From TrEMBL:
The chain crosses the membrane at residues 7-29, 89-114, 126-148, 160-181. The gene is ycf60. Keywords: Chloroplast, Membrane, Plastid, Transmembrane, Transmembrane helix. GO terms for cellular component: chloroplast membrane. Its main location: plastid. Belongs to the Tic20 family. It holds the Pfam family TIC20. InterPro entries: Tic20. It is a multi-pass membrane protein. This is Tic20 family protein Ycf60. The keyword Nucleus does not apply. It is found in: Plastid, Chloroplast membrane. The lineage of its organism: Eukaryota, Rhodophyta, Florideophyceae, Rhodymeniophycidae, Halymeniales. The keyword Transmembrane helix applies.
Length: 207
């Protein structure tokens, strides 16, 4: 397409946007850490910022799930639901699909800021747990999506293929919704296997 920007320009712009966002988050956390340190704040307590800051990373696995499964099955859902999807999430999904490099940039930024042992961001266990869990959900969604696309197209378009796609879609949606609700409540999610793997990873980093 002649009107589309070159890929290297898109990568630079995406990197700058994510970088500026990361620096903004880092600055906010530095100010927060300074104020909390002055008040001798317990880092294990969960603040309002922790709760809502833990919601944002789940946008990555949500977009990945909508790309892999939602686009195929949502047109078969009631018109009202499809209309709501078009007005809310669809523009983000289209941007996500047309800029696949953005997912990897966000992935590495999240990993660098929140998952690494020597992270520059002040240690907030609740946010770290949810960021790591969202990354794991993103990787699982990517693997499931790649596996589903590798199946023969005849199977994918058949009744059983659509049933499988629906199952995977609702698995993605339910795990993310559950995690977001728990984040708002200020509680740790307990997704079988996934949450346990996250806790094991965090414990290994602390030892």
């Amino acid at each position: 397409m002649p009107n589309r920007l070159p890929i290297w320009i898109i990568i630079i712009i995406s990197t700058l946007i994510v970088g500026v966002t990361g620096l903004l988050i880092y600055s906010i956390y530095q100010l927060l850490a300074k104020s909390l340190k002055e008040k001798e704040y317990d880092k294990k307590s969960i603040t309002v910022i922790d709760r809502f800051g833990s919601i944002l990373p789940y946008g990555l696995p949500l977009l990945e799930g909508l790309q892999n499964f939602g686009q195929q099955i949502l047109p078969d859902y009631p018109f009202s639901l499809m209309s709501l999807y078009k007005k809310t999430l669809m523009p983000f999904v289209i941007f996500y699909v047309t800029h696949p490099e953005l997912a990897f940039i966000i992935f590495f930024v999240l990993y660098y800021l929140f998952v690494r042992v020597k992270s520059p961001v002040p240690d907030r266990p609740f946010i770290r747990f949810n960021v790591l869990q969202s990354i794991l959900l993103f990787l699982i969604n990517s693997l499931l999506g790649a596996t589903f696309r590798a199946l023969p197209i005849e199977f994918r378009m058949s009744l059983y293929g659509l049933m499988l796609c629906n199952t995977l879609f609702w698995f993605v949606l339910s795990t993310i919704t559950y995690s977001v609700v728990k984040s708002i409540q200020g509680k740790y999610a307990k997704i079988p296997v996934i949450s346990q793997a996250v806790r094991i990873q965090i414990d290994n980093n602390q030892t």
